[in-house]
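Example record

One chain of 122 residues, shown exactly as stored in the release files.
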Amino acid sequence: EITAEYPAGVIGTTEENLLAAAEGEKMEWGTLYPDFGKTAEEEGFPNIANSFKNIAKVESQHEKRYRKLLENVKENKVFKRDKPMNWKCRNCGFIYEGIEPPQNCPACQHPQSYYELLAENY
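Predicted structure tokens for this chain:
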């Protein structure tokens, strides 16, 4: 029998939400999944225990990402960098080079919030 519940939390400011998310991920990789793995191991499921150990590694990366996003929000660097970067509109794919993306995409007119740093990871 599996019994579990997970608290949903409260919606706060962006900074509060990112901090809560980071702390949640920390709890998951530091306590939750290791405990699940220990239980699986004790109950004779080594493959499942190994999966939980690997999921904990994923959750650790999630925590790092949320903390970096929080840092960017606090330092007003979500849509601004210290040097020119390539920014990609997630709606149409337009690439803009600059310290920050335009308020509206010159190609599709979507707002700045549609921009992300271009990741050439292919």
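Notes: The chain has two domains: 14-74, 85-117.
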